[in-house]
Amino acid sequence: MINFRKQIEEDIADYAEKYSSIKNIRKPEWAFNFWVLDKLFSEDDQLIEEKIIDYDDKGIDCYVWHEDMHDLYLIQNKFYSEGSNLTVDYVMNDFLTRAIGSLEKGCYTRSKELQEIYNKFNQEEDFHIYFYLYVTNNSSKTQSIQDAIAKFNQKYAAKKWKQDFFS
User: Fold this and answer.
1) What does pTM read for this prediction?
2) Quick check: 156 and 122 in contact, CB under 8 A?
């Protein structure tokens, strides 16, 4: 993981040079969101900035929408060093419950586009929501978090909601 984190840090430094006009690109936590959308989802680099919600985000740092597949990815990222940990409470409440709760109530104000996507497609039979949590260390993915995620996935399988944790 140390080499992987080092690679992310190098990529983030490259972003700071290449995209110097982007307001928050020099903030590592924000740039990690950019990295996830660029490297893992291959989003158009000209559109990435508008997909990052970070800061008072109600559990969603960024998102990806594949309209043709009706797949919505709600993404939370933690640019953590080794030894930083997450709790089950954080994952289940701050990330999962708060994020979807705001969208379901129609009061997610941090991204008008994201709320509109949810409103328009949430009743579609083939609409899927993927809750992805990316953490840049190996110490956060505990058994209790994995068990809670498994329960969440089982509970919401009929709604086609799925949570995954990547570290």
Assistant:
1) 0.91
2) no
Give the tokens for residue 149: 């995620």
DSSP state of 92: I
Provide the 10 A C-beta neighbour count for residue 124: 10
Measured between alpha carbons, how far is 71 from 53 in angstroms, rounded to an integer?
18
Q: Are strands 128-135 and 161-166 parallel, antiparallel or unpaired?
A: parallel
d(CA 71, CA 130): 7
Sheet of 62-66, strand order: 62-66, 71-78, 128-135, 161-166
Instruction: Decide which of 1.10.1200, 3.40.1350, 3.40.50, 3.30.450 is the CATH code for 50-166.
Output: 3.40.1350
Mention every residue, 6+ apart, whose C-beta is less than 8 A from residue 113. Answer: 50
Condensed to tens digits (0 to 9), the pLDDT of residues 48-61 reads: 999 999 776 678 99
Taking only the tens place, the pLDDT of each residue in 108-120 is: 988 999 999 999 9
* 3-state SS, residue 17: helix
* Contact call for residues 56 and 110 (beta carbons, < 8 A): yes
For the chain, the domains span 50-166
Alpha-carbon dihedral 20, 22, 24, 30, rounded to 10 degrees: -100
